[in-house]
Amino acid sequence: MASNQLAREVEQMRMKTNLAAMAVNQQPRVRTRVMVTIFLVTLILTGATHAQVIETAASTTNTSGYRNIAFWSEPGVQIAVSSHSFRNGAMVHSSICPLNRPFIPGGPSSNCWMSSEYEHLPQWVWFHFSGPRRIDKVVLYADTNMSPAEFSGQFLSNSNDTFHTFFHIWDASYDLKTLSCTIHFKPVVTDNFRLLIERNTASDTPQSWVAELAQVEVYGQDATNAETSAVATSPSPAPALKSDLKPTKFIPDITDTGQTLEIRTPWYRLVLDKSHPQIKELSWDSLGQGELGVNLLQPSGACPVLDPIFQSATPLETSTLTQSGNMFRYAPVEVAAGAFEQVSIRADEHGFDLEVAAAANRPILMRGGLFRFHFAANQTPTTFVCQPSDIMNYVATPAYLDAPDFGTAYITHSGDPSAFYRIPSALFPATTYWVDITPGQPIAEDGLHKIGTEPWHTTMHFSVQTLEPLPNLVKDDPQLKRFPKYSLNMIQWRPDTGIIGNSVMSVPCGLAILFYAQQALFAPQLQDGISPMAMVGASVDRYFQGAPGYQMPNRNVCDPNWQSSRETPAYLVVSAWYDIRTIGGLKQLNRWLEPLECLANHVEAQFGPDGLIYYQDQHTMWFDTYKMQGADAYSNAADFQAFQCMADLETLAGRTTLAARYKKDAERIKAMYFKSFYNPKTGVLAGWRTEDGTLHDYMFPWVNGFAICQGLVPPEEAKAIPQVLLARLDKIGFHSYPLGLPTNLTPMSPDDYIAHTSGAPKQADGMDTWQVYMNGGATPALEYYFIQALYQTGQYDAAERLLWPLMGSFEKGTFNAGIQLPHQKQRNPVGSAFYEWDGSRGRGEGYLPENWDGVEALFTGHFGIGFDKDGYYLELWSPLKGQTVKLDLPYMGKNVPFVTRVK
Questions:
Q1: For 398, which of 7, 579, 674, 749 is 20 to 30 Å away at the CA?
Q2: Which of helix, strand or coil describes residue 22?
Q3: CA of residue 895 relative to chain centroid, distance
């Protein structure tokens, strides 16, 4: 079978190659490429190995005279790209680059280069030759509806590292047979060529963000000796580097271990290598109690780096470390040929200053920055909390750097312009977590920066902070002593996607965005306008434009083919509502009204004749192992909430007709909801209902709690249902409330659980995997709704009995095991997210921001602070009634200092 398939593929390749050869029959200069392709096919037919194909082709291809000097067999040719796709499998690290391989029209998309789906144009492809070449023609091949339409040809001058543009195409035309575009130009002598793609043929986002190419040919010949000498340049002497940091009176605890120097205060700890300019260990404690045992860095630590384009990085050199009081200074090291860098550190009580200075004897272009942190996400997923950047991969200062369950550092800078740059990595699991300090503010997403003979000098100031929400309410509570260590655990920001994700090492999940929005409502107050809600809003905006996420295609929400998990459309609407009603106001509403209406219309289109929402083509949701069919109770409740939010937003926008329409949609769902999902046999709401009327009821606490919170259950049953579920918990012997609640209180049937996934039962009664993953595993995620339902129905004591064991686990850091990554040991090997009831094992990625969703119950339930279209209010059960409660929280873009309204 395999050999027959190969023969068929080779025959198809030969036929396509013959067509290409016919198309270029009148172009002798192209025959080399065609003949090499035919020769490769012949070798494959005769059974040659991959290595033999490459070796033979390289030895038979003409490498002199006029030719395609970018072809893969050309000695010394190198290719760099601005970014590459996370999804299509091409251009991953160490893979074969398709851009200078023979193009096969109609071949697999993995044989094409595609830029990152999360970045924007312009993007580029850059070739470097082994020596100067005299070039006069470029041929592009693109078998896609995202072909480059506007682009420029450039080369980098060796004299000043400036790109020179020698042709610009405004509206490219491609041959329909060969799928090629040929550009002729006046001969240029250069040792490199960059194609800068500024616009493609797509008009809608996100397709209009992406560059895609199948092959690039660059035609020319070796330059003459006279032309070669014109390209050569002479370097200048490297300027001296100096430090501006001076010692202060503060002296930290210092321990010399021989190979390292440990610097410690109660707030942070640094371990410096004495023979290399390297921070080997970094830890901090937002409580200032000296709990500094976990290193936030990988063994490679944090150190100077310079990654020149088309060159290998220089190994870290040795350097002398000198100390003067609380000043620690390394001697300059050469980080690339002719480039030098100096690192100095000043230790203060609550933080430290990291000073980096660099210069070179000539202009040097690099990818990334000059000082790199290699964060250890397997210990804790340290993340930036910052102003979202329109330029992907970057974080500007000031910013916060939060180490979940350890605390937060506030970072500012002085000196020359600088920023942080996250080296783009795979989606899940990310293969690296490198963050660089760059020499300059970002101007493009490609990570290119330059240093030269003018010294660059910047200082990053790290100050460990004690941050907690509504401090007047929580600061003196002995049950919340460690709150500053986990008060920002809901944020896991990926600068390389511009979206809050499952973690800094994982995928964006639109089906979790509402959890982040709800928690951001009561986030700590931060400086410089930094707001977790703004990061939620930036994520929502990216999803609106079509940034891909888990169970989401890369299509914008107004595309008729947009799809997602069942609850994602509602989650996006409600999360946008939170952003608008808190920080965004009318300005944000006006920007988002069109995509919001597209989402609402998408949900409307799923209405069944009975008034419920049916997602016929989508069977999963956040609980992505369940095989849902028909109408499900959770997403219908979410859609009900979304329509209510849309009615409010349309009223705010002055569009009363649409407001009435969406209000009616919400009423349609409410009219049918309870009688459709209530199961009188169990006394609770079922998970879903198939079109034949069959209820699939596994006694889901999260389904019932959410529906009660949305007001979809009559008052008498709203009070009774939690009691039924609490009694069921006692009956099945569940008492592990510090771990959350079981996902379901009766075992799942194999018919309703996706086979071959974690927790999938094989026995009809579901008991063979009971307590495993989503078949009854205990999880803190979504428990918020059940706890809040107890508060809302007057069962305050029962709610408190669930809330405080959960808060106790937050205090202990139970749910942060460190990210599960290949070949790395998690800090807590038990794992997290879905636990067996005895706590011996958890299943999941090691960190999910949703796990801290229960924190919200502290504010909306225990303290009884609500939020609606009119702002903050106190619930009838709130113990704060009669008090003037200090808030300092945003509503419609303005600060609300106090709350007194009772609802």
A1: 579
A2: helix
A3: 30
- In this predicted model, what pLDDT tens digit does every residue of 132-169 receive, in sequence order? 999 999 999 997 788 999 999 999 987 667 899 999 99
- Rg of the chain taking only CA atoms, in angstroms: 30
Determine the Cα angle at 481 with ends 480 and 485, to 5°: 95
pTM across the whole model: 0.91
Tell me how far apart the alpha carbons of residues 381 and 296 are, in angstroms, rounded to a whole number. Answer: 9
Query: What are the residues facing 678 on neighbouring strands?
Result: 685
Q: Indicate the range of 46-55, 210-219, 604-613, 753-762 predicted with least confidence.
A: 46-55
Q: How many CA atoms are closer than 13 Å to the CA of 689, on its beta-carbon side? A: 24
- Quick check: 71 and 217 in contact, CB under 8 A? yes
Burial 726-741 (b: 16+ CB within 10 A, else e): bebbeebebebbbbbb
Instruction: Name the CA dihedral angle for 422, 423, 427, 429, rounded to a multiple of 10 degrees.
Output: -100
- Cis peptide leading into 237, omega within 30 of 0? no
Give the model confidence (pLDDT) of 670-679 as tens digits.
999 999 999 9
Is residue 22 pLDDT above 50, yes or no?
no
How far, in whole angstroms, is CA 858 from its chain's centroid? 28
Q: Which of 365, 3, 66 is nearest to 194 (CA)?
A: 365
Nearest CA to 465 among 654, 292, 268? 268
Phi, psi dihedrals of residue 6, rounded to the nearest 5°: -65, -40
Q: How many CA atoms lie within 13 A of 494 on its CB side?
A: 29
CA 482 to chain centre: 27
d(CA 115, CA 106): 19
Of all residues in the chain, the percent with pLDDT exceeding 70 is 89
Q: What is the predicted pLDDT for the residue at 13?
A: 38
SS3 letters for 695-748?
EECCCCHHHHHHHHHCCCCCHHHHHHHHHHHHHHHHHCCCCCHHHCEECCCCCC
Return d(Cα 519, Cα 848) in angstroms, integer.
13
d(CA 363, CA 190): 17
- Amino acid letter, 552: M
User: For residues 351 and 413, is the Cβ–Cβ distance under 8 A?
Assistant: no
- What the block records as the tokens of 544 is 């609106």
Cα distances from 426 to residues 25, 88, 374, 430, in angstroms, run 42, 11, 16, 4
The pair phi, psi for residue 65, each rounded to 5°, is: 75, -165
The Cβ of residue 425 has, within 10 Å, a number of other Cβ atoms equal to 18
Sign of the CA dihedral 389, 393, 398, 399? positive
List 165's β-bridge partners, or say none.
Answer: 154
8 A C-beta contact, residue 213 and residue 194: no
Q: Residue 199 in 3-state DSSP?
A: strand
Per-residue burial over 513-526, b = 16 or more CB atoms within 10 Å of its CB, e = otherwise: bbbbbbbbbbbbbb
End-to-end alpha-carbon separation of the chain, Å?
72
Amino acid at 806: L
Q: How does residue 229 score in pLDDT terms, banded at 50, 70 and 90?
A: low
- 3-state secondary structure labels for all residues of 41-67: HHHHHCCCCHHHHHHHHHHHCCCCCCE
Structure confidence by residue, pLDDT tens digits, 320-338: 999 999 999 999 999 999 9
Which tokens hold the place of 594? 């069109």
Quote the pLDDT of residue 698. 98
Query: Residue range 24-44: average pLDDT?
Result: 33
Q: Strand ranges (DSSP E) for 488-610?
A: 493-494, 499-500
DSSP letter, residue 370: S
pLDDT average, residue stretch 524-540: 97
Distance CA 37, CA 18 (A): 10
Give the contacts of 855 (CB within 8 A, at least 6 positions apart).
486, 490, 519, 522, 807, 810
Q: Which residue(s) pair with 254 in the sheet?
A: 263
